[in-house]
Amino acid sequence: MTFLAAPLLGNAWWRLAIVGFLMLISLSTGIPWRVWKQQMGWLLLLSLLVFVITCLSPDGMGIDSQPRLPAGESFPQPTDYDFVVWKSKYNFFGEKSLMITRRGLDLAVRVSTLVFTLIYSTNLYLLTTAPEEITAGLERLMHPLRRLRFPVTEVALTLTLSLRFIPLVLEEIQNLARSLRTRAINWKKLGIKQTAKIWLLVVERLLDNLLLRAEQIAVAMDIRGFTSPNEHQVQWNQLSLKWKDWLVLVLLIPFWLLRFQFGGMD
User: Which of 1, 31, 55, 252 has a CA between 20 and 30 Å from the CA of residue 246?
Assistant: First the structure.
């Protein structure tokens, strides 16, 4: 939650620092390289594309200014400040030449770093935290809502089952992908119609398998008498703060002090 809230109203340098800090955390957690290298690569590529597109897009400052002095009577620029950072020498498709302004560059950094932080911090949290711990923490936070007759335990159970169901979905997708590779289908000889037909069959099989898995889980819970979570004592995980948790909580204090001191808007 800290990494999701820290970039809000922060400057570009602070957002870039958070991206680098997330990468350092990934290296320190000991997650195997094969687990997150592909996700990191695709996410960096996506962020880079967002950065380039936002840089080259109009920055919204469409202001036509007129000089206050007659032509030929201008004063030298007192500083080296220039609103246009880069401008191409050639026009593209008969339109104006491409250029990167300071506002467009700042906006590109903000958008690309926000995309990276939002996706990767969530993914890193799910990789390093067990689903039971996540739901136990959320249930503890939502405990005051019980006074309003809010089904806290039912919501926590639904979230736990959803998080536990994600690996099953990935497993079914991998099994179907392996089955297609073993059949050695020559996709080049197939037309668009046949290719679409095959993929529709694959999607149909995937939905059937997922619904079958969900039905098996529901039958297993029904057999064990778990029909109403609000009437059963559900112990997701025994929450206890260890010395590492206290250390992280203490480190959040200087983190947010740096955020308010150096990470504010310019």
Answer: 31
